[in-house]
Design brief:
Largest sheet: 3 strands, mixed
Number of helices: 5
CATH class of the largest domain: Mainly Alpha
Strand content: 5-15%
Length: 146
Amino acid sequence: MPEQVDGVSVLRAHHLRVTAPRLAVLGALAELPGHVTVDQVAERARARIGALSTQAVYDIMGALDRAGVVRRIAPAGSPALFETRVGDNHHHLVCRDCGKTVDVDCVTGEAPCLTPASAAGYEIDEAEVTFWGRCPDCTRARRTDR
């Protein structure tokens, strides 16, 4: 989502009602980098419009996810993260120590880039892969702790 997002156009294009809370959330998403939690979005959205419950932000993020405006990822043991990079089948790298999450492009460039041995009759349109390891900062910190 570009930094100068036209929230009204985004919401209308995805057949969602235009409301001040939704516009505040879209504005917050445009300002925040990468993979963000609902709490991070809520804090930034509140700075834009004042009072806004965390539950309202959860509801808005759910609606944006269902509409395809954002993508929800849920790394094991972490709160759900949301990103505005949608429409491709990329994957994620998650640091085991600090939780930093970065995008990893699909190996073959086609969605889905992984195909199961048996699809059990499903029409598969996405493969979700999470790679786990340690980011460079945490790797350096572990080396200096020894």
